[in-house]
């Protein structure tokens, strides 16, 4: 049964919570109105990390972001992993839960990466079945995040935006729109990020994410962007965010910085820019 008393995420900037920032956040969170955690970091029992999380949850709404369910995998979801995720969500009662449109398991092996999927009706059914299982088990809606892409499958017979729209219609899930992922994929695969946003089912968006990426080249010398979450959000991605917000209206807006994590003051400056972008909508 869904919890009608559950907090919702505010239409303000949020950040991915890192334990080294606990004291800074409690002293002065700046414009940060909510926090995100990666589920797999908090599936243990007890200890200082969970104590800090309980303390923060009294002050901030939380979003829980999963990276290990392998929503697009061909096999069944890992029942033990899903049970641990339910335990976390039951006590934390986050305002939002999300996962990636990707697969990361094969048989009993876990692959330390988020791997892409072909966009076909067979994949729609598999992903929808897995989302139905997650939502039924957790008793809450989940959001599905668009991937960062480095290749396209010849067997795909629909666009990514049509695929996401059909998944949302079939399952009632929401969507997590990662604007940096759109920019990375559009650059790597040679399409317009604005046209992607034009086609995206924005009515289903529950969160928008921003993060940094690394720049490289492929074997032909063409630009290759790597979604790294380890740098400042670049100006073209901020511009794409403005384009998106002009169509969607304000949404909960997360700054992701998961590698080479900076001092809290650096994240605050990023969230101030996000706050300005939201104010312009």
UniProtKB/TrEMBL annotation:
Domain of life: Bacteria
InterPro entries from the UniProt entry: MbnB/TglH/ChrH, Xyl_isomerase-like_sf
NCBIfam families assigned: PRK05409.1
Protein name: UPF0276 protein L0664_03410
Family listed: Belongs to the UPF0276 family.
Originating organism: Octadecabacter dasysiphoniae
Family annotation (Gene3D superfamilies): Divalent-metal-dependent TIM barrel enzymes
Pfam families tied to this protein: MbnB_TglH_ChrH
């Amino acid at each position: 049964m869904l919890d009608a008393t559950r907090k919702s995420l505010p239409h303000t900037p949020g950040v991915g919570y890192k334990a080294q920032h606990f004291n800074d956040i409690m002293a002065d969170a700046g414009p940060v109105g909510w926090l995100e955690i990666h589920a797999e970091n908090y599936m243990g029992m007890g200890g200082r990390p969970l104590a800090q999380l309980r303390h923060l949850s009294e002050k901030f709404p939380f979003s829980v972001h999963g990276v290990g369910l392998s929503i697009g995998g061909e096999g069944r979801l890992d029942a033990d992993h899903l049970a641990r995720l339910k335990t976390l969500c039951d006590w934390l009662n986050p305002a939002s839960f999300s996962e990636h449109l990707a697969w990361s398991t094969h048989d009993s092996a876990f692959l330390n990466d988020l791997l892409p999927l072909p966009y076909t009706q067979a994949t729609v059914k598999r992903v929808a079945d897995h989302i139905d299982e997650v939502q039924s088990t957790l008793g809450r809606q989940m959001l599905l995040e668009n991937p960062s892409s480095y290749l396209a499958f010849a067997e795909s017979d629909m666009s990514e935006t049509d695929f996401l729209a059909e998944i949302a219609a079939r399952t009632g899930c929401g969507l997590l729109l990662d604007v940096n992922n759109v920019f990375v994929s559009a650059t790597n695969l040679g399409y317009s990020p604005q046209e992607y946003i034009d086609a995206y089912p924005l009515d289903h968006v529950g969160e928008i994410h921003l993060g940094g990426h690394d720049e490289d080249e492929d074997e032909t010398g063409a630009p290759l962007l790597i979604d790294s979450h380890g740098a400042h959000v670049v100006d073209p991605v901020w511009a794409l965010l403005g384009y998106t917000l002009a169509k969607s209206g304000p949404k909960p807006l997360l700054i992701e910085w998961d590698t080479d994590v900076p001092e809290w003051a650096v994240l605050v400056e990023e969230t101030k820019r996000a706050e300005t972008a939201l104010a312009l909508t």
